[in-house]
Write a structure and sequence with these properties.
10 helices; transmembrane helix; transmembrane; alpha+beta; 3 domains; Nuclear Transport Factor 2, Chain: A; YycH family regulatory protein; membrane
Amino acid sequence: MKYIEQIKSIVLLFLVLLSIVLTFSIWTYTPSLQVIEESSQVDQLMVGKKKNLQEVIKPYRILVRDRGEWKGTIGSTAINDLMDILPNWKGSELIPVQNNMSIKKMNDFIRMDQRITFFFSEEVPIKVFHSIVPFSQDDLPELTFNKLIMDWSKVDSEKVLTVYFLSGTHRTLYSTEIKMNEVYFQSTVLQALEGLVAYQEVERSNGLSLYVPKDEIELVQYTYYIDEIHPDTFRDILFYDPAIVRKNVESQELLKYTDGMTLMTVDVKNRYLNYVNPSTESMAELPASRLLLDSFEFVNEHGGFTGDYRLTSINEQKHIVEYQLYKQGFPVFSTDTTTRITTTWGENQLFRYKRPYFLLDLDINSEKSQRKVSPGLSAVDVLEKSKQLQLNEVDDIILGYYLKQNDNNLLFTLEPGWFALSQGSWKRIAPEATGGGKNGLE
């Protein structure tokens, strides 16, 4: 027992040294981490191809005024060509031109010779359009426009194309200049506008003018086999943890997906879904530019623009952004807005997402037929005789397609015709204006 104290000291010394060695090892240890290859990361589920901004923020009509005559687009060819050109340009500083423009001044401004007017369905935030056509200044104001007007009267003499941004809602006018020579302008812009058809202005006493094709138009009526994206794919995209989502078959025409917090209902007959996350609802003020960019990026992230969808509506108060389906350059309308993609933004994330999940990709050649659509003034005449909608209440009269679901639920027919737009909703002008025999509006 006489060595017991010495043994304790040796053991204590050993433990102290061991503690020092272990502490040093921990401090100096560098784990051998394997680099994660990009290809090993989980791929984002996609239902379609991603698109550029100019493919979604796209005009529905381009109108040219020159030598006292009107010409305009039918279909998408010229519109697509010009929208592809715009990102190659650069605007100078944005200059305010006029506020509180009267309706007469706006009509007169568009009516001037050597001007090209792009008609957009909704007011486009200039901060978002900056992503399509950059400006020399970065601190752009929070302004919007629904008509872009190109004045080429100075291209020959001063090598400058003046571009105006007109807001019909706010009645403001801004301008910028783009350096451009006549040869380039002729070979790009004017060449893209070859093949336009004659248009006619319909003047109104208390409203902006309407513009319609002057002559009879021949459009193709299409019939499509229905393809679709399975709703389970959207379950996997939209829900935080798809593994815990329960699928309930409510009826032959209604499915429900829920994880207890969020809900997705599926209208099987119309192939339309409605996803909502109540916990994210918010009424905090959002500028139109942020609202639009958040909406576009969300839908585009999973390739959600599964057709020619174009911006058609922004509601800042309700945080709603809508995109309308187009086919062959014409808007496609249906009952219950089943041809629109709608997003509602909440607390820094999506609150609601409504959209069709059908695809119009394969048309039946044998079912195609030519339909003659009467001149625009015929549609105007029907409107003036109708008691449902006054001409001064109409925002525009446009050619489009009505989506008709066939009885077997496997085919969709696109019937061409005239449509009147008013306060964000549409009315189908009855077949008399397209050569049929029924009066009034549908």
